[in-house]
Amino acid sequence: MVTLHAYVLRELLKTFGLTLAALTALFTMGGGLYNVVSYEGFSAADVFRFVPLLIPIVVTLTMPIAALFAVTMVYGRLADDNELVACRAAGVNVHRMFRSAVLLSIFVAVFTLLFGSFIIPRFVGRIEQFARNNIRDLVAQTLQRKGFIHRSRDGADSYTLTAEQVQGVTDEALLTKGFEVGSGLHYLLIRNPTLLHIDEHGALQRFAAAREGMVIFDTRPTPIELTLLVREGRNFEVGKSAVTIRQQQIGPIPMELPARVRMSTAALDDLIRWRASPWLAPRLQDEIRMYRRELLREHLFAWCAERIEAGADIEFPGADERSFLVRASSAERVRSGLRLSDVSVEVQRADAAVQVRYEAAAADLIAADFGLFGLALEIRMLQTEDADVLEYNPRFGDPDTPRRKPTLSVDGPWVPSEVEADLAQFPPSAVLDPNVEMPVPQALADRRISLQNSAKHVQRKITATIHFRSAYTVSVLVTGLMGAALGVIFRGSRALAAVLIAMIPFFSVLILMVLGRHVAEDPATTQYGPLVTWGGLAVVLVADFVILRLGVRR
Question: For the chain, percent helix, then strand, then coil, each to nearest 5?
């Protein structure tokens, strides 16, 4: 029996290895590379650098199929060549010959479980890390190939960046200009860039153009920080006068790469963690971040209105040790933000000396959502029928003589730390907890309910994914045994016949697993999903023994 088992196992491994190699090459050069090039800007050289990372992923996914085909074909050839008849004539129990198929199935199941749950996510993470470290090249190649980069998200503003020419900068040239160089710092020089800003309602907000700009990518922190240096440009904003820019620095701005983590490729421990804490799930995490940003906006406006009604001043911090002291007689909530009356804004340095002062009969405090970049505050001074906007600036002559302007925008204020501290009492977990009361407007209350429903859907989907992945791993045990038995019955010694025969158990199990997954994701039948999945596999296992008992003589 040792000789017979070794003979059958050798044939199984040979057919299994050839089939696995063919399927790996097919899926790697097809679907695998297609998913990789979905990252905009990847060149052909970058794609082929991913092949070593894709091969282990494809091998793990195709091993059960290769094992099923191998056992069907090998046992079909044993039956077609009457070798099983010879074994039966020698007094050997033919059912014992199926131990080799069971042994191969166990090996494939264990390999698929370990690699699919713990190894594949690491390779996917390395692909994500490659995209992070090569963000400059991705941006450059996208601008060269398409001429623009468009970033948008449902329910948020969209941005479009164009450039006529893109080129890298050598370290020698950077050092000559005084730029820092080193690992994690990447520079990109763009000629004639333009930036188009469209709000969430599709209305034009800003259009900026410059003669040249330098984009600095700092990949050392998390998230990546992006800084843009522009010169000789013009900035046009709706409702404001055009501004000439000689030289300006924008940023550093936190820049998070789009989350491409999928539950089907996530590690098993991550899935279990996300199911227990759904606010950590990638896509839901982004939605909760945007919700808390809206909550911060509403809390900021309420805090400002409360202080103004109490007759107190509002001090906003800013970059470069600046601060913005705002005084107003009244505040009213409007659609664009907070409408202030009889406004005075003083821009101060750390020594509390007044640098610039603006006065207007009315002004809007606006908190613009910059997508993944956070909230950007703006105080938009407005002209009324009775009064212009006044600017007291010592750089333009007598500090007591104002310059009159129709409109004026004060950019640069940050959200006060005490407002952010108040929001800390509502962490992401509290947003999804219906037992935590949150004083929010009705629109945000409805949106919170939607997030809670989304969290329940994510938990159901994670549960369905765990069962589906586990069932796919175990399915090779029942499909391999059925494939071997059907190969013997139908004598599937030829490749085409083996493929057709192997499809019977494969599609039977696959249909049951897909059905169980859909049942588990449905809120009305979620508790029956695992029963359909594992109960279906149990039925197929019973069918295996029935086929072996009635269809294959000992």
Answer: 55, 25, 25
Strand partners, 389: 405
Give the amino acid at 48: F
The whole-number pLDDT of residue 306 equals 93
Q: Which two tokens stand for residue 528?
A: 């029956």
- Going through 42-157 in order, the beta strands assigned E by DSSP cover 148-151
Domain boundaries, the chain: 2-133+455-551, 145-255, 291-427
d(CA 33, CA 55): 10
CA distance linking residue 374 with residue 255, whole number of Å: 10
- pLDDT at position 494 over 70: yes
User: Is 446 a residue whose pLDDT tops 90?
Assistant: yes
pTM (two decimals): 0.71
Alpha-carbon gap, residue 136 to 68, rounded angstroms = 45
C-alpha pair distances (Å), 175 with each of 45, 80, 155, 167, 172: 29, 76, 42, 17, 5
159, 151 Cβ separation under 8 angstroms: yes
Yes or no: say if 336 and 326 are a contact pair by the CB < 8 Å rule: no
Which long-range contacts link 392-395 to residues 24+ away (Cβ below 8 Å)? 392/356, 392/357, 392/358, 392/359, 393/356, 394/355, 394/356
pLDDT, tens only, 204-250? 877 888 888 888 888 777 667 777 788 888 877 776 666 677 777 76
d(Cα 476, Cα 16) in Å, to the nearest integer? 13
275-321 tens-digit pLDDT: 999 998 888 887 898 898 889 999 999 999 999 999 999 999 887 67
Cα–Cα dist 2/92, whole Å: 12
CA 316 to chain centre: 33
**What ranges make up the beta strands (E) of 372-521?**
375-382, 389-392, 403-405, 408-411
